[in-house]
Amino acid sequence: MVFQKMNLKSIFAPSTIGALIGFAIGVIPQIRKLLLGDGAPLRVIQDTANLLGYMLGKILTMLGPILVHIRMNNMLGNDRYVALPLIGVLVVKGALIFGLVHSDPLYLFVLLLQFSLPPAMNIGIMTLLFEAGENECSVIMLWTYAFASLSITFWSAAFMWLVARL
After folding, report:
1. Which residues lie below 8 Å from residue 124, measured CB to CB, with a gap of 6+?
2. Among the residues of the chain, which ranges form H helices?
3. 116-162 residue pLDDT tens
4. Residue 113 near residue 153, CB atoms below 8 Å
């Protein structure tokens, strides 16, 4: 009955199994003498694990930012810096037509500009609250603000032209 209520998938996840194997190697002296040390008969396993860990770390260090950059370029470029300002134009124009806002050009410009600004700290606050993804959040914020300088320049000019026409 106890085993039915346990979530065995989470208990026997790969990270848990690896931790248990590492604990067993460290605690049982016979296994430790076989695998660890310069004179160990099976030290090739330790050398292979060290080499694979080193190579995997280097590969992820080199490719990680590139892959995140490509995904963020697509996601942020399409959604954050193209679709959202266009939606903002429709929202502000609709509010102007229905009389929800007055037609002061500076006021309309500020309303439009808010749709093209980067998300500030809301992503960072979410990762701190959930205590996960701090590294990924920093990469997202880096690329968000890198693209924001170009986006705000373009959309500011477009919004000034648009506000003069409204």
Report:
1. 137, 141
2. 2-5, 8-11, 14-27, 29-35, 43-75, 84-97, 105-113, 122-130, 134-165
3. 877 665 556 666 656 666 666 677 777 777 777 888 889 899 999 99
4. no
Task: State the Cα–Cα distance between residues 35 and 105, nearest whole angstrom.
Answer: 74
Two tokens at 124?
């960072």
Question: Do the beta carbons of residue 127 and residue 134 sit within 8 Å?
Answer: yes
CB neighbourhood size of 93 (10 A): 14
CA–CA distance, 8 with 109 (Å, rounded to integer) = 56
Tokens of 79: 């959604």
Per-residue pLDDT tens over the stretch 47-102: 787 777 777 666 666 666 665 555 555 555 566 777 888 888 998 999 899 988 88
Q: How far apart are CA 56 and CA 91, in angstroms?
A: 48
Tokens of 116: 């093209």
Taking Cα atoms as reference points, which of 166, 137, 152, 31 lies closest to residue 80? Answer: 152
